[in-house]
Amino acid sequence: MSITTTTHLNFHGNARAALEFYQSVFGGQVTIATYGDFGMPQDAPGAANVVFGQVETEDGFRVMAYDIPGHAADSDTAASAAGSTRRENGVTLTDQPFFVSVRGETLDEVQGYWAALSAGAPIVEPLAASAWSPGFGMLTDAFGVTWILDVAAAYTA
Question: Distance (Å, rounded) from C-alpha 148 to C-alpha 152?
Answer without folding.
Answer: 12
